[in-house]
Amino acid sequence: MKELAKDTYRLEHSPGLVLGIAKGDVIKTHLPSRSFEIVSRSGLIAVQIYLESPVSDREALSIHVETVLMGTIDAITDKQVVLSLPYARGFQEIEAVLEQIVTGLGNAEW
Question: pTM value?
Answer without folding.
Answer: 0.91
